[in-house]
Amino acid sequence: MSDSAPTQYDLIGRAYESMKKLPAALLERDNLRAAVTPYLHEAKVLDLACGTGYYSRLLLDWGASKIVGVDISSTMVDAALKSAERDVIGRDKLSFHVGDATNPLPKEVMAQGPFDIVLGAWFLNYADNVETMTAMFRNISSALKSDGVFVGITPHPASDLDSFAELHGTAEEKAQMKHFGVSIEYVSALENGQGYNTRVTGHTQPTEIKFKNFHLRREAYERAAKEGGMNGKVEWRAIVLPDNERSRDYGVGSEYWEGYERRPHFGIMVVAR
Known about the structure:
Layout: H1 8-12, H2 23-36, E1 44-48, H3 54-62, E2 66-71, H4 74-86, E3 94-98, H5 107-110, E4 115-121, H6 130-143, E5 144-154, H7 161-167, H8 171-180, E6 182-189, E7 195-202, E8 209-216, H9 218-227, E9 235-237, H10 244-249, E10 267-272
Parallel strand pairs: 1-2, 1-4, 2-3, 4-5
Antiparallel strand pairs: 5-10, 6-7, 7-8, 9-10
Helix pairs in contact: 6-9
InterPro entries: Methyltranfer_dom, SAM-dependent_MTases_sf
Organism: Cladophialophora chaetospira
Protein name: Methyltransferase domain-containing protein
């Protein structure tokens, strides 16, 4: 895809960040924080598919020293730059660039590396085959220090993706997913047999946000990481649901999460270079 081609996110723009206020997105944020924090002290981070810079700004708050963000959507990058300008303390530690991370990264990005961490929060799900994801991992590994680490938010790494996709097809399951704020529709199987075309809906107000991506099989992620230059073992972190007190911080009770473990909408992937 060309960097200049319009993307679905150019149309969504800043409204995308409204999804981050949903309880399911807050759950995602807390689990990412738990996974990335051990590596984060004074770290220099490359944030691929950075969007409006939501996680870039949080990474600074959590202890990183510098963040370089890349996104294919110029609209998203413009929003990230405007948010950074308003951050008096952090703006000198944030930079954002337009780029397609399935292709070699822009020179101005690589010149700021190598990086301690590459973050891919909803990045790998834009690969519809192992070859494309392998190209993504080549960019990741080439940007990392020799002892660097990749931390990603991905679709749920189901051991049986076909059964997981089928689970989402009933009316009852669709209603339950909407309850959590984020619905995933498994539209069709990919012709290559590697996974599914998906449609994600963020049930935001006043207007829902919809976008398309892909859910590849767990083994595709693991193979792509290895073939893309990552030498460490792929770790899939267990998703930890909030306790009663933390659920209240989300604006819901602990009973809100009943049934979520049957249909988690994300996974946390960690792999060292």
